[in-house]
Design brief:
By secondary structure, this protein is an all-alpha fold. It contains eight helices and no strands.
């Protein structure tokens, strides 16, 4: 019985297809190759340790991190531009070059909203293309990340429609639509950012790197505290939209920065790992 168990552990279980050609790999050795296309089995059945995975699988992880990193950086630019633009709007009555420059950066934030949903979409697609997504390490985490990114993407698209309606008709789509847009965009991307931080930490752990704590959570705690103060303060003091935009955007820059740093670190580690791989299968 023990020999049978050891043999089962050394072979691929049912339901695992080759990431290259779709050939059923059940019963084949986990360290072998696909009999149809010759792709290393570890590329389709990844082990936990990235250093023992085949190069095609590690390259896919690299692509996931790249797209998540680009989406995070695009969001950071939009938030920073929105914060400075809000400051410019608050200073506009006083005029001056500072106010004009800040207003220009505010327009940059609006323009940055256009490609941001595309970056999120590309990251979402990269996660969906993961080889044997349902069985590979981190499957549940990637699934939650996709859901968060999908909800946030819907909110971003609604925000673009909201802005377009204002420009074309001169009328907004109503406070209920605006509130729904904000909840979907901030809630979905906030959820996705926490899952992306955990995913980047898991990738670092799989590459043998110590210290993979959730550094994003303190940033989000600060951001939520500022957002709550702004919401409560608006009930008693007329902050005005420009100052509220400055406060909200500046608060969200904290978690966006923490996520960008963690994703950049994970991507650098995977890049270095690929640079040490000279063949299709480092094992």
């Amino acid at each position: 019985m023990a020999d049978h168990d050891r043999q089962a552990e050394a072979t691929i279980p049912a339901g695992v297809a080759c990431a290259g050609c779709g050939y059923e790999l059940a019963g084949l050795p986990r360290g072998g190759v696909c009999p149809e296309c010759g792709l290393d089995v570890p590329a389709s059945w990844p082990v936990w340790d990235l250093r023992r995975c085949a190069r095609p699988y590690v390259e896919h992880v690299q692509d996931e991190l790249r797209m998540l990193n680009w989406a995070t950086m695009a969001a950071w630019v939009v938030l920073a531009s929105a914060a400075v633009g809000g400051l410019g709007a608050a200073l506009e009555p006083h005029g001056g070059a500072v106010a004009a420059t800040a207003m220009f950066l505010g327009l940059l934030a609006i323009a940055g909203l256009v490609p941001l949903p595309l970056f999120v979409l590309y990251a979402w697609q990269a996660l969906r293309r993961h080889p044997n997504d349902a069985r590979s390490p981190g499957a549940a985490l990637r699934r939650r990340l996709r859901w968060g990114a999908g909800i946030g993407m819907a909110g971003l698209v609604m925000a673009l429609l909201f802005i377009a309606a204002g420009f074309l008709t001169g009328q907004s789509l109503g406070p209920a639509y605006g509130a729904t847009t904000a909840i979907l965009a901030v809630g979905g991307l906030g959820w996705a950012s926490i899952e992306a931080m955990a995913y980047a930490g898991a990738i670092l752990g799989r590459a043998g790197m110590p210290g993979v704590g959730r550094g994003l959570l303190p940033g989000w705690g600060f951001a939520l505290a500022v957002l709550a103060v702004v919401a409560a303060g608006s009930m008693f003091v007329d902050l005005g939209r420009p100052l509220a935009l400055v406060a909200c955007s500046a608060a969200l820059l904290g978690p966006a920065t923490a996520l960008a740093v963690r994703l950049a670190r994970a991507r650098a580690v995977v890049d270095a790992l690929l640079g040490r791989m000279t063949g299709p299968d480092p094992a």
